[in-house]
Amino acid sequence: MKKILFNKICIVGVGLIGGSLGMAIKKQKLAKLVVGVVRRDRTAKETMHKKAVDVAIFDLKEGVRNADLVILCGPVSIIASQLKAISKYVSPKTMVIDVGSSKVLINKIGKEYLGSSFVGCHPIAGSEKTGVENACPYLFEKSICFVSKLHSKVNQFWRALDATPITLSAEKHDEWVARSSHLPHLLAFSIFQDLKSPVKMPLNPSLRSLGRLARSNPELWSDIFLSNRGAMLKALSKFKKNLAVFEKNIRANRKPNLLKFIRVANRFALQKEGKNG
Question: Is the whole-model pTM more than 0.85?
């Protein structure tokens, strides 16, 4: 029989991630009670239909009251405001985590208002789809979750969901996701600004992954870009320099230089895939 880690877990924001967390928590029996804080009647009904939580309510204060664990699952800007709000309602013993895609801003506010009770987290799991209707209890299995500081109970929680917690500072995290996630999304949004086919046909294989990224939620991703603005601008500057090198060699018809450019990318890609020993 699996150990119950918490008496009450409150999930604030029951969309794709929050709903998937609720379903996974209930599947693994990690809490006696799972409460979801939602904003709309439709979300409350869908949340209960999906059995993502035991109770769906609209009042933040009531939701977090007496919770052992509070999980903030909204966009970064919303999480930042919620950290301030719930600091008036939660017990000093309540553990608070988030799942935001950038960490520097959130960690600063979390430390200011909640002190050591707050641990910033970012599970690397998700989809271009949104909403609790797309939630899945297996979303976090075999995934990685970045945590901004070492915390045994937080690590235990993520491991119970079959995710691997990795401790990484907020600054290093934001630099990494700017290059590995945020920049690829920017490229997808840029490429699909004016992508017209001469005939009606599906996307070719090279564009399918980018097409999936290009369908990502506009509100969510504009929030992510702005919340991680500094690291994003650095990543974009580096990319523009690489693009300038590529353009220069194309214009000068320098095949040896292009071969070198592509082979560098090959080498790094193979390293990340673990195929070079």
Answer: yes
